């Protein structure tokens, strides 16, 4: 026969151990969930999502200023959903760009586990958000969820281009003033150079002829000496011929 008394002690020990482990696990999960809920969110409030939910749950029979609110058109809801998807793309891109740097900092011990938990919680929330947007898009139009983020990406790029164009337009007056001043300064420099060159030409025309230099005088004196010598050589012959005729 089985000795139940001898088995009661180990069975009781195992029951206490399993119960304590289960209690510890449940308490740990609760504390972890409370800690995760108390952590500051990675991103601020999702305004576009809140607007979409507000439009979705807007009661058309509600009374406001003694008038019934009209039903929200489906086109408005689709536009709001696109805006929501656009904000989701911005947040997903931000998470991708920050993950690598945050991982390196975590490995070096530069950041704590709380920051990493916040980041992981933000990733999970964005995964659920993307799935929800795809489901909402498919509810409006079949297979729209496959292309809604592509359309949202194009909208985001158009918004970026518009912002850049607005920035350039805001700086247009300043750039015109800068280049106008630069053009005026360049023209002023050209006019000064032109006036200086004309004045130099006029002074050169008005100036008297330059006096002969010493080299010119020496050359002229040498030429005069040669002429005098030539005349002196030729003149005695003439005198002799004259005497012979006499």
Automatic annotation (TrEMBL):
One of its GO terms (cellular component) is Sec62/Sec63 complex. GO terms for biological process: post-translational protein targeting to membrane, translocation. It comes from the Eukaryota. The chain crosses the membrane at residues 6-28. Pfam families: Sec66. Residues 237-246 have a biased composition (Basic residues). Residues 194-246 are annotated as: Disordered. Keywords: Membrane, Transmembrane, Transmembrane helix. InterPro entries: Sec66. This is Pre protein translocase subunit Sec66-domain-containing protein.
């Amino acid at each position: 026969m089985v000795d139940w008394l001898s088995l009661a002690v180990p069975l009781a020990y195992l029951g206490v151990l399993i119960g304590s482990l289960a209690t510890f696990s449940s308490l740990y999960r609760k504390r972890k969930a409370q800690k995760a809920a108390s952590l500051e969110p990675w991103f601020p409030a999702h305004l576009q999502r809140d607007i979409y939910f507000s439009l979705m749950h807007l009661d058309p029979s509600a009374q406001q200023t003694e008038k019934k609110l009209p039903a929200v058109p489906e086109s408005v809801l689709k536009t709001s959903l696109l805006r929501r998807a656009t904000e989701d793309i911005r947040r997903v891109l931000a998470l991708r760009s920050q993950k690598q740097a945050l991982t390196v900092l975590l490995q070096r011990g530069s950041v704590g586990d709380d920051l990493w938990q916040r980041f992981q919680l933000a990733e999970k929330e964005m995964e659920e958000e993307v799935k929800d947007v795809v489901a909402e898009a498919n509810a409006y139009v079949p297979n729209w969820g496959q292309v809604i983020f592509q359309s949202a990406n194009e909208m985001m790029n158009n918004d970026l281009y518009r912002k850049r164009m607005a920035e350039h337009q805001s700086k247009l007056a300043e750039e015109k003033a800068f280049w106008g001043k630069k053009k005026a300064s360049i023209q002023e420099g050209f006019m000064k150079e032109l006036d200086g060159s004309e004045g130099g030409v006029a002074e050169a025309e008005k100036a008297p002829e330059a006096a002969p230099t010493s080299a010119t005088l020496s050359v002229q004196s040498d030429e005069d000496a040669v002429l005098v010598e030539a005349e002196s050589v030729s003149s005695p012959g003439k005198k002799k011929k004259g005497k012979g005729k006499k």
